[in-house]
Specification:
Elements (H helix, E strand, L loop, with lengths): L9 H16 L5 H32 L5 H29 L5 H5 L2 E5 L8 H17 L1 H9 L10 H6 L1 E5 L1
Antiparallel strand pairs: 1-2
Helix pairs in contact: 2-3, 3-5, 5-6
Length: 171
């Protein structure tokens, strides 16, 4: 009769490790889900910023200000910055700290604290959005690299997630 070896088979250990990693992989939000959420969120924030901007332009045109054309052109040029400020100061921190942005809710993913799997505190959500804004302001390259870090991180984190100890999970 053949006896079972005392030590586990190395191939069985490897297969078990691969199976465990596959289970963990299914827990995290996919890159496409995160991209879809970002597109929805960007569209919403741009719509809000441009609606506010055009409302301001309407008010300026309605009051017959001196240098009206100069003021209107200045407002038009500042609309992308207004959108970025709405994103960083209001939209992202407020909604992330209450369960997720509209884009994340739509694609059924959620940002959580990596240590506790709880919804992150407002201050951490604010820090995350400011870090991402710094990446965007420095140049587009750091923000793109931050997002591509998803592919090399064990917990599928971007740089702004890693710096604030957050992960994005499927609901």
């Amino acid at each position: 009769m053949i006896q079972k070896p005392i030590q586990p088979d190395p191939i069985d250990k490897l297969l078990q490790k691969i199976a465990n990693e596959a289970d963990v992989e299914q827990r995290y939000a996919s890159f496409l889900q995160r991209c879809a959420a970002r597109i929805v969120d960007t569209t919403i924030v741009l719509a809000i910023a441009y609606t506010l901007g055009w409302y301001f332009i309407y008010l300026i045109g309605d009051t017959n200000q001196l240098n009206e054309d100069y003021i209107i052109e200045s407002v038009k040029k500042s609309l992308p910055a207004l959108a970025l400020m709405i994103w960083v100061l209001i939209y992202s921190p407020l909604l992330e700290s209450t369960g997720g942005t509209l884009g994340k809710r739509l694609v059924r993913i959620k940002l959580v604290d990596a240590a506790s799997d709880e919804t992150p505190a407002f201050r951490m959500c604010m820090a995350r959005s400011w870090i991402y804004m710094v990446f965007i302001v420095l140049a587009v390259v750091p923000s793109v690299l931050s997002c591509l870090a998803y592919f090399v991180s064990d917990q599928k984190q971007t740089w702004h997630d890693k710096l604030t100890n957050m992960i994005c999970l499927k609901k």
